[in-house]
Amino acid sequence: MVLFGGVDNANVEHDDLWSWNGTAWTRLAATTGGREIGTEIFATAQDVFSVSPTGRVRRLVDTQWVQVTAASTPVRALAAYAYDSARGRLVRFGGGAGPGEAARETWEYDGQSWTQASSQGPSARLFPAMAYDPQRRVTVLFGGLNLAEQKLDDTWEWDGFEWTPVTGTGPSPRFGATMVFDGGAGEMLLFGGIDVTTRQIDELWRRRSGTWSRVETSGGPSPRALALMTFDAARHNVLLFGGDGGQASLGDTWTWSGQAWAVR
């Protein structure tokens, strides 16, 4: 597992690179040449890439980021990203160019260029949660924050052609949650976020066969938003790191076995 960058409690931006081997973190490089607020990471079967809010894509070569294309997009900070492994497309939804702006746009990157795939579907928003479901072959989007500062609780699915709203009971309104597909359990997981009372929460939700259900847990991560969560295919668990705890940035590491949390 690879972790890149972030902002610490002193509001210092980092562009260091770390790896997780299932037991401990190892710092691979103090600087990688990739420092830019809003940069996201995605991985294919062969490579690890970073993408900036302007759509600039770089590939990780050893411990340095190397630009692979001059393709770009309008600035879309605070957007959601998910990699559609079946179609080989990075999907991006929402985000905005600056304060008071949010887009209702779906963009896709095919390895060479960006295409605006849709301007319909979910309403404009910031901080939605989004992840790809390889079993159902759809990108799932949940919640976010609109420009009226309303927390959202809608669920949508993108099949590469159009967005479809999903009905039924799900998580309460929130933004800044993190979502990942747990390949071991074959289900989508959503954790944390900021709710309608503007507080961080520690709820865990699962989505199986298109249906959400709350997972009752104890002794897990503290309430937080904007955490990082990914599936560890080698060890068949989900890894969670850090996030915004409300009073401070967090630096703890947790694993989810499919049944319980464990601090690492």
Explain this structure.
With 264 residues, the protein is an all-beta fold. The chain has two domains: 69 residues, no CATH class; 194 residues, Kelch-type beta propeller (Neuraminidase). It contains no helices and 23 strands. A four-stranded antiparallel β-sheet has the order 4-5-6-7, with no helix packed on it. Strands 8-9-10-11 form a four-stranded antiparallel β-sheet, with no helix packed on it. A four-stranded antiparallel β-sheet has the order 12-13-14-15, with no helix packed on it. Strand 1 and strand 2 form a beta hairpin. The mean pLDDT is 95.
Short structural description:
The chain contains no helices and 23 strands.
Write the layout of secondary structure elements.
Elements: E1 2-7, E2 13-20, E3 25-29, E4 40-43, E5 48-51, E6 57-61, E7 64-67, E8 80-84, E9 89-93, E10 106-109, E11 114-118, E12 129-133, E13 138-145, E14 151-158, E15 163-166, E16 178-182, E17 187-191, E18 204-208, E19 211-215, E20 228-232, E21 237-244, E22 249-256, E23 261-263
Antiparallel strand pairs: 1-2, 2-3, 4-5, 5-6, 6-7, 8-9, 9-10, 10-11, 12-13, 13-14, 14-15, 16-17, 17-18, 18-19, 20-21, 21-22, 22-23
